[in-house]
Amino acid sequence: MNCNDTLAETHIEEVVVLVHGIRTFANWQPLVVRILEEIPGIKVVPIKYGYLDAIRFWCPFTRSGPIDDVRREVQNARRKHPNAQLSVIAHSFGTYAITSLLRDNPDLHLNRLLLSGSIVSRSFRWDYVDGRLAHDVINDYGTRDVWPVLAKCLSWGYGDTGRHGFGRAASVRDRGHAYSHSDFFNEAFVRTYWKPWFEEGRFVTSEWEESSPPSPWLLSVLSVFPAKWLTIIALLTGVYLICTQLRLGSATTQLSDSPQHGGDRHEVVAPSEAATEGQNDAVLSRLVQVYRPQWTGIGSADDVHGNTYNYARIFDPQEQSPREWKADACVLTFELEKHTAIPWVRITDVSVIVHDYERPPDYRRAVFAGAESAHVFYVLIDDPEQSGTDTFSAVLLDEHDRPSATKLVRLEEELPDVIYLRINAARPGLYTISCQVTVSYQSTEILIPLMKPTLFLFGQD
Predict the structure, then answer these.
(1) Distance, CA of 127 to CA of 335 (rounded, Å)
(2) Entry's InterPro entries (predicted)?
(3) pLDDT in tens, 174-217
(4) What are the distances in angstroms from CA 249 to CA 112, 134, 252, 255?
């Protein structure tokens, strides 16, 4: 690399990663590279994970390889340009890959995310990743694009948002065009819609959205018709119904009926005398499952030896409400899987176990935004040797940050309640922590591990 190249690298302010779709070698990428690199401080990095055929695209068990390739290339771009903001333009399967990485990698933060030909499900939980996106997501969809509809209809995990948009997602701005799946990649479109977004942060609207015709009835039917199941539904329906009835029958004979609700009061009904305590524990443990626990809002810090830590800032709850923590907050989110046999459970305890503590090293950190909160539990942890305990129970906070009554969590609703555990520390240090939740149904109580031991550096700056 010559001196001019070195000087140019040091002035890179934003790296834009391009992620392509299936059955292509991404011939559109050089066009986007040429136009966006006209913007001073922009470096465009095309990612190519190879030719993904339709069979591997269709099967949910063969998608991890291309997604891992994208993850490695994104990490390489971050390492090569550590001081630059990271943005992504993704098309088709690339939209599925990058949102999967956002969902599963809480340390991934993006400045801008631009989707085209999207096959991301409309139910994607943008609220889980919103704190790691500096700007709203832009979804350029084509009203003549049939492939997202077919992907949703014929396979698992995909959506038709590249045809109909997300619609109700607060963090996504839909923009419709009279395009089919790959029509976005022309010079006029990139210069009109994408370049202003990266150059000025200006969102250019599309007039086509107001004048576009309604979707043909066949595509509307395919958007909701689960054709992928037709090949196996005849074989599995009978077995599924029999197993479901046996399982639910066993559960309901061991656990008595759900409580009677009167206003805001929830009365607990005693279980059947025929059900022993051990039987109830086994049934509840089998039926109540934790859904996708993950750390959100955490930052990153490096010590003088090059070690990287999950960074969490120590907050003063008297100055800033735990419900409003954003930058570098240690927050664990989780849900409990819905279940027809168990309409509700009571959370009797949420706790954090400190497995190890060390004094903090010399470090430097980067600041990222955290996540907004809903039902918030708050806990203050400390050095076990100083506090005399390694287990610290959280309290539920109401909207005024006052300790609240025990939380009842619905399991029979379409969208279960989301629980946020906000973790604070009494003193700076390296904490190795794990988390657990205790739930009860009537007089039966079980403890569910949430997270395996994870190392956090808690600091005050």
Answers:
(1) 13
(2) AB_hydrolase_fold
(3) 999 999 888 999 999 999 999 999 999 999 999 887 776 666 66
(4) 50, 49, 5, 10
How far is residue 310's CA from residue 72's CA, in Å, rounded to a whole number? 20
Name the residue with tokens 């990663």.
17
Alpha carbon dihedral 113, 114, 117, 122, in 10-degree steps, equals 50
Neighbour tally for 148: CB within 10 Å: 26
What pLDDT digit, counting tens, does each position of 411-427 carry? 665 555 678 888 999 99
For the chain (461 residues), the mean pLDDT of every run of 10, in chain order, is 50 93 77 95 87 66 81 91 94 93 91 95 88 93 87 82 82 92 92 96 88 66 60 63 62 47 36 49 68 70 78 78 71 75 78 86 59 69 92 86 75 65 91 91 84 86 70
C-beta atoms surrounding 434 within 10 Å = 15
Q: Could you tell me the pTM of the whole model?
A: 0.52
The packing angle between helices 93-104 and 64-80, to 10°, is 70
Do residues 342 and 411 touch, judged by C-beta distance below 8 A? yes
